[in-house]
Amino acid sequence: MESAPPILKVDNLSVTLDGQQILNEVSFDLNRDDTVAIVGPNGAGKSVLFRALLGLIPYTGTVTWAKDVKINYIPQRFTIDKDFPLTVKEFFYFKTKNHKTIFSALRSVGITDEHHINHHLINKRLGWLSVGQIQRILIAWAIVDQPNVILFDEPTAGIDVGGEETIYHLIKKLKDEKDLTILIISHDLNVVYKYATSVLCLNKDLICFGAPADALDPSSLKALYGEVTFFTHHHQHK
Amino acid sequence: MSSPFILQLIIGGIIGIGAGYIGAFMIIRRMALVGDALSHVALPGLAVALLFNVNPFLGAFLALFIAIVGIWILEKKTNLPSETLVGIFFTTALALGILLTPEPELLEALFGNIGNVGQFDLYVTLPIVALIIITLILISKPLTLSTISKDLTRSLRVPVNAINFLFLLLVAAIVALGIKVTGTLLMGALVIIPAAAARNVALNFSRYSFLSAFLGGIAATSGIVIAHQYSFAPGPLVVLSGGVLFLVSLLFKQ
Asked: What is the ipTM of this complex?
């Protein structure tokens, strides 16, 4: 059966930064509407992969996106001080001044109370929000101009576990509502099993790629994290 | 009130507004100290301009331009943090400037003298400050956004490096102009203080940047008026006025 053309085709992607090889000949294809989790230990090149896919850093090999893609990116690091005088409204105004569109994006990330938005959120400084709130605003900001691809770098960094569940829940909800291909860097393999349609394991080389249940076999987990995996969890009881 | 004094007020006010507005962006980009140190680089340029009888603004701007490009290149080639580079480059420039500047003009170069401005200075100042403000308004979105995240901004296909460079050129231009008002040693203050005060008071960015420009204008003009009244040097009083405005802003801190 002839399948639809991939939304992203990556061939022999290698990245060397400051004389150090970060990614080595990584190749994979992504299909439209996939939710792809990218897993791997710290320093495995996950964020670098995103930056290469976005064309932000030099690389060798080829990265080919489908012609109609509109990609939005949520990076890992933000510097929003409490003192930064930028309100939520002004942040959205960078993309659109249409309040209907902004409210609809906020609704999609679970901020539905219009009274709350108008009186407590929209004119608040971005830096005054909690990490979880900022995360939701960033996701809303990422979807407000209707992308069909979102690259999401470690959305759970700095959020407690309770909040973590909801962010992934949100992403799943978004996907159910819209035509979206999502690439998400994740540390939590449970989340990968629960929400991802495929998983891409990275440790400089591409270790595995496929449906989570097939791809994450013991040998690829070992290649990713060494002997001790997330599943062999030892306790010392005294 | 004589017309040369009115001219001083107008020129000082325009420069204050420009410095305040650009300062709003420098503060959020955590460039407060860069602005301060950068102003010292103007001194050798000023000295060379004095020695060869060229317009001091051009000399100062050229020195600042060379410094900015120098830092730009060194940062890329050596991987030293720009803080270190700024520290080395700018103190060296100050030392060189002090040696080169003819003694009678040294005090004026260091602390400014708006007293000797002429009509021609207005014709130079007004269009340059207008151009600075218009350019800043045009690039304000990527400037602000790249402060939050450089990668995010670049992912939106914004040429962040080019915009940063353009921004530094604007900083150089306002510093070169401002030397007339406060001198090379104190120019950093005219850029930093109004923005720091505005940030205490304003909740959102549009009010913050407007207020910063406004306070810059107020600091400059009130300093010049007080200096005129009591026959002090205007430069230090402009900075002191800014300091007072900052203290007052603390009372209204958000």
From this structure: 0.83
